[in-house]
Amino acid sequence: MKTNDTRTELNLELYRMLYLIRTCEETIVEHYFEDEMKTPMHMSMGAEAISVGICQALRPEDHVFGTYRSHALFLAKTGDTDDFFAEMYGKDTSSLKGKGGSMHLCSPDHGFMGASAIVASAIPVAAGCAFANKRANNGKLVAVFFGDGAADEGCFWESLNAACLMKLPILFVCEDNGLAVHTPKSCRRGYSSLVDVVSKFNCIAHEHKTTDAEAIYELTSELIETMKNEQKPGFLRLEYCRYLEHVGVQQDFEAGYRSVEEFEQWYKFDPVALQRKKLQNLGYQTDNIKRLETEIEEGVSRSFSKAKNASFCEVSELYKEVLV
Amino acid sequence: MRNISYCEALNEAMAQEMQADPDVFVYGIDVADHKRVFGSTKGLLEKFGPDRCFSTPLSEDAMTGFGLGAAINGLRPIHVHMRVDFMLLAMNQLANMISSYRYMSAGRLEVPMVIRAVIGRGWGQAFQHSKTMHCCFAHIPGLKVVMPTTPRDAKETLVAAIRDDNPVISIEHRWLYDVEDEVPEEVEPTFLGHGRVLKQGCDITVVATSWMNIEALKAAEILAKHGVSVEVIDPVSICPLDEELITDSVTKTGHCIVADNDWVYAGFGAELAAIVSEKCFGTLKSPVARIGFAQTPCPTVRHLEQEFYPNAIDIIETIEQKLDLEETDLSGEDFYSYENKFKGPF
To answer: Which of B52, B221, B240, B267 is deepest in the core (most CB within 10 A)?
Structure first.
C-alpha cells in the first residue's frame, strides 16, 4: 500500500506532465495558423494519460518508439520543451535541426528512439532494439506505441510473432481511438477483439478504457512486473478519444464520420481535468495547483519564444548525416 | 596465398568479423538450417551459438526492421536473403526507415547493418528468383550497395560492409559461389567504393557488374586472340561508385560498354552512360552502349531464358560494331552453360 504522501507525490508528478503536454499543444493550436510551424501536426489531445501513465512506469533508461502522433510521448519521456518547440519550428537549436518535425521526433539521449509516419513501421525496429537489450542483459525495457490501425498491417503481426518467439523484453502499446485516419474498425476488421487474438500469442495482453493516468500507471507497472517474472512480451490496448481532427489543430465533427456526443462523453473524463480533481480530492491545495500550473505555463512560454526567435540551420546541413 | 571459393570467402569474412566483434550477428530465413544459405553461413552456429546465428520466421519486412532496431542499439546485424526478390517484401523498411534513420536523428543514431542477398539464375528460377535490383537500392540516399564478383572482393567488401557504420546491401550472384581464386587470409582495413580493373586493355572499356564480368572476361579473352585489347572494369561498389576508375579507362580507350546484370531501361547502365557522357564527352569515339536483360520478366523455359540473358557473344558483337571489326570466328570457343555444372535444383 502506498502512503497518502507517496500517492499525492505520484499524482502530482502525473498532473505536472499532463498539464505540461496539454499546455504545449494548446500553444501549438494558438499559433499554428501563423504558418511558421511547417510540419503536419497530429495532436495528442485526449490521449495524454496513456503516454504519461506508461512513461511514469518506465525508467529513464528504458526505450520508447512512437508514431507520427507522438507529442505526448515525446514530452512524457523527455520533458524537454525547448527541444520540442525548436523541432516544431525546425530551428537550429533543435537536436534534430528540423530534419524530423512533428511526425519524426527522436531523442536517443532520453531513450526516445524514433517515430515513424508509416503505420506499424517502428514496431519491428522496437523489437530489434529489445533484442539488443536482451543480448546486453541490461534490464532495459522497450515500449512501442502505435494506433489501432497498425493492427491492420502485416508488420504488426510479424513483429508480435517474432517478439513472442524470442521472448523479448518489449511492451506493445495500442493507443486505440477506434479510427484509422477516418475509417472505423467496423470497416477494417474481420474479427471482433484485438486483445483476444493477441492473447493467443505467448505474451501477456491486457486492455483498459480509462483516462486516469494513475490507473494506467498501476496497470503498466503490474504488467511490467509480470513480463519480467514470466519472461514474456506485454501487450496493452488502451482506449481514448482523439479530440481533434486526424491531422491539424481543429475539430472536425461536422464531417460526420464520428459523433460529437461520443466526444462529449469522453470529455467529461478529460485526463487533465480528472487528474486535477484527483489532486484536490487527495487534499492538495488549489492554490498550490494553480502555482504549479503557472510555473508550467511560464516554462512552456519560454521554450516557445526561444524556438520562435531562434535561427534556422545553415543550408549546408541538408547534406549532412546521410551517411557516416 | 591459397585459393578458396567465393562462398568460402563470404563465410570466412563473417566468421572472422564475428570472432573479432561480439556485436556482429547473422540472421535470416534458413540461415541456421542444414543447407546454411548455400554453405555461406556454415559453421557459424556451432562456433558462435544460436544467439548470434539464427533462422527467423518468414517475415522479411519485420525482420529487416528488427535489424535496424538492433543496429541503432549497439549491435551489428547481418541479415541474409536467399534471393534479392524476397527482400522486396522489406522495401518499406529499406526505403522509409533504414535509409533515413541516421538523417532523421541528425546523426545521433547510426545503422551499422549489412543485408546480403543472392541473385538466382537458371534452372527455372523465373521471374521471382532472379532479380538484381541494385539500381533501385542505389537510387535511395542513405544506402550503400555492393556487388562483388571475385572471391577476394567478396571477402574484402563483406568485411568492409560489416565494419561500416552505414547500412550496406551486398548482392551476390549464385553462380559466383563456386568460383575459386586467391583470397588473403587476413584482410587489411578497407573501405567501400573501390572498383577493380579485372583485365587491362587499351581498345575499349567494358564496365560489367556481378556475373556479367565473367561474360566480359570471356569476351575479352576471345577477342585478344584476334588482336583486340579489351579493358574490363568491375565497379564492385554501386554506391558509392569509383567514378574515376571508370572515367580514366574511358578517357584512355574512347569507347564504353556497360554490361549490367539487370534490365537496361532506367538502370545502372543509364546512370553510367550519363556519368561517362558528362565527364568524358570530349574523348568519346562512340556513344556508350548498354547490354542487359531483355525488357521482359525472366521466363522459366530454357530457350527463352537463353534469349533473356546477355552473354559473352553479345558483348563480342557489340565490340565488333563499335570498333568496326569483322565478325569474329567463334567456332571452337567454349562458353559458359550451367548444364555443365548444375543438374538443379539450386
So the answer is: B267
Active site residue B129: yes
d(CA B211, CA B309): 11
Q: Are A208 and A80 in contact (CB under 8 A)?
A: no
B21 in contact with A, Cβ within 8 Å? no
| Angle at which helices A154-165 and A122-136 cross, to 10° | 10
CA nearest to A129 within chain B = B69
> Would you state the cell numbers that stand for residue B26, as one nine-digit string?
547473422
pLDDT of chain A along its 324 residues, tens only? 567 789 999 999 999 999 999 999 999 999 999 999 999 999 999 999 999 999 999 999 999 999 999 999 999 999 999 999 999 999 999 999 999 999 999 999 999 999 999 999 999 999 999 999 999 999 999 999 999 999 999 999 999 999 999 999 999 999 999 999 999 999 999 999 999 999 999 999 999 999 999 999 999 999 999 999 999 999 999 999 999 999 999 999 999 999 999 999 999 999 999 999 999 999 999 999 999 999 999 999 999 999 999 999 999 999 999 999
Chain B residue numbers with beta carbons less than 8 Å from the beta carbon of A121 are 65, 92-93, 96-97
Q: Which domains does chain A have, with CATH numbers?
A: 4-312 (3.40.50.970)
Q: Judge whether A138 is closer than 8 Å to chain B, CB to CB.
A: no
Q: Tell me if chain B has a CB within 8 Å of the CB of A78.
A: no
If we measure between CA atoms, which residue out of B68, B83, B308, B79 comes closest to residue B174? B83
| A108 with B109: Cβ contact below 8 A | yes
Are the folds of B3-182 and B196-330 the same? yes
Identify the CA nearest to B246 among candidates B181, B175, B196, B298: B196
ipTM of the complex: 0.96
Instruction: For residue A132, list chain B residues with Cβ-Cβ distance below 8 A.
Output: 69-70, 73-75
C-alpha cell of A314?
Answer: 545553415
- Output the DSSP codes for A252-263: -GGGSSS-HHHH
Number of H helices, E strands in chain B: 13, 14
Answer yes or no: are the C-beta atoms of B302 and B311 closer than 8 Å: no
Instruction: Report how many Cβ contacts below 8 Å link chain A to chain B.
Output: 137
For chain B, which residues make up each domain, given as ranges? 3-182, 196-330
Angle between helices A213-230 and A4-31 (to 10 degrees): 110
Q: Which CATH architecture has domain B3-182?
A: 3-Layer(aba) Sandwich (3.40)
The CATH architecture one would assign to domain B196-330 is 3-Layer(aba) Sandwich (3.40)
What backbone torsions phi and psi does residue A243 show, to the nearest 5 degrees? -70, -40
Q: How far apart are CA B123 and CA B38, in angstroms?
A: 16
